[in-house]
Amino acid sequence: MKDLAGILDKNGLVFAFLFVGVVMYLSYIISKKLTNHKIPGAAIAISVGLLLAYFGGGEKGLASVPAFSGLAILGGSMMRDFAIVATAMGASFSEIKKTGLVGIFCLLIGTVIAFVIGGSIGYAMGYTDAKSFATIGGGACTFIVGPITGGAVGASSEVIAISIAIGVIKSVIVTISTPFLAKRLGVCDPQSAMIFGGVVGSTSGVSAGLAATDIKLVPYGALTATFHTAMGCLLCPSILYFIVNKIIGA
Amino acid sequence: MKIYGVAILAGCFLVGHVLGDQLGKSLGMSGNLGGVGFAMLILILFNDYFKKKGILKPETESGMLFWSTMYIPVVVAMSASQNVKAAMSGGWVALLVGIFATVVCFATVPLIISYVKNKAQQ
Q1: Considering just the CA atoms, what is the radius of gyration of chain B in Å?
Q2: Is the pLDDT of residue B87 over 80?
Q3: C-beta contacts of A56-62 below 8 A and 24+ residues apart
Q4: How far is CA A247 from CA A115, A129, A130, A250, in A?
Q5: Domain ranges, ordered by start, for chain B
Q6: How many angstroms separate the CA atoms of A56 and A204, rounded?
Q7: What Rg, from alpha-carbon coordinates, does chain A have?
Q8: Block means of pLDDT (10 residues each) for chain A, length 250 residues?
Q9: A61 has which bridge partners?
Q10: CB nearest to A63's CB, from B80, B91, B99
Q11: Which of B8, B53, B92, B109 to mutate to test the interface with A (most CBs of A within 10 A)?
Q12: Handedness of CA B108, A128, A153, A139 (dihedral sign)
């Protein structure tokens, strides 16, 4: 047992690939069998990650256990930023131009609304410094924007974990409620799906939710939703943090 | 070769980070401001330009696509290595912010849609 732990510790990153692969596999089975795809596998896997970090416990979550130390490398800021930049592959500039100014306007509105609401509630509940405001506000955009903002401005791991949880909760709510609300919100054609994706933003939630509404709308919603994350990563740790910093101070 | 794609990705990533770092310095703050967002924009513009010219080979592209599919696994590993115990003390914040932010975003959608439709009719 000790030998095995030693090998896993030494080959941490490789073990992390195996471990995350197994977690993803089981989560997608749960998503399919127990929830009939209503809760996306990605959202379940992320929640499992957060649960394991809670029970595995220390400063670095499950990665505090030596055998699991590789999780901190695979999930560290370098790999995370690298993989997220790569997701921009899915978007093309000519498609954005088609949506035109409305698309950009939606992205701006969605980001600012989520940021201000998220940050303000956090502020009211005791997270009163500018770094936490920006990180929690970023988390209200998506579970990617939160940790990226937190990492850039230097927020605590505690606040970053909260921001991930916020993004995951948002993704789950969007996924479950979109099929019921889409018609009432007026989401029925490509243009409105693009507006929806741009304002709401959670890529996994929007694409899963629209898939359950009308499969034809998925690419349109997903396109602007992808940009919502990019817009959040661009604005939250820069201009928005700068403004918050000026208003409430460091 | 796939490594070309990975290298292009790495180049965009680093240029984005340099820009983010400079933006941070110019605003007098420590840390990297929007580096990831810059990197994404550079990659999008880069892809668009070279795809139109037909220079970007599918094999090269697949090197980048691999990393884009790794993003959820990386996020799972990231959540597993966070200080969740400390975050649980703020569990209500996560729940409240998650719910409120989503509801307000949803409420904004029909306003924008009807505005756009009205404008189109005029």
Answers
A1: 20
A2: no
A3: A56/B80, A57/B84, A57/B85, A58/B83, A58/B85, A59/A157, A59/B83, A60/A157, A60/B81, A60/B82, A60/B83, A61/A161, A61/B79, A61/B80, A61/B81, A61/B82, A61/B83, A61/B84, A62/B80, A62/B81
A4: 15, 11, 9, 9
A5: 1-82, 85-122
A6: 27
A7: 19
A8: 84 95 95 83 83 82 89 89 81 67 87 95 93 95 90 91 89 79 86 89 78 76 80 89 86
A9: A58
A10: B80
A11: B109
A12: negative
d(CA B97, CA A165): 10
Interchain proximity A61–B114, CB inside 8 Å? no
Q: What angle do CA A204, A102, A92 make, to 5 degrees?
A: 55
Question: How is residue B28 annotated by DSSP?
Answer: T
Chain B interface mutation, best of A123, A162, A163, A196, highest count of B Cβ atoms under 10 Å: A162
End-to-end CA distance of chain B: 52
**Cα–Cα dist A137/A236, whole Å:** 8
C-alpha to C-alpha distance for B121 and A85, rounded to whole angstroms: 38
* Top-ranked range on mean pLDDT: pick from A149-158, B40-49, B87-96: A149-158
* Binding-face residues of A in 209-228 toward B, CB within 8 A: none
User: Could you report how far apart the first and last alpha carbons of chain A are, in Å?
Assistant: 48
In which residue are the tokens 């590993």 written?
B77
Partner B contacted by A94 (CB < 8 A): yes
Return d(Cα B29, Cα B21) in angstroms, integer: 9
ipTM confidence: 0.84
Q: In the prediction, which pLDDT does B37 show? A: 75
Which residues, at least 6 apart from A19, have a Cβ–Cβ distance to it below 8 Å?
Answer: A68, A70, A71
The dihedral formed by the CA atoms of B98, A157, B17 and A45, expressed in degrees to the nearest 10: -60
Asked if B45 lies within 8 A of A93 by C-beta distance, the reply is yes
Query: Which residues are CB-contacts of B26 (< 8 A; sequence separation ≥ 6)?
Result: none
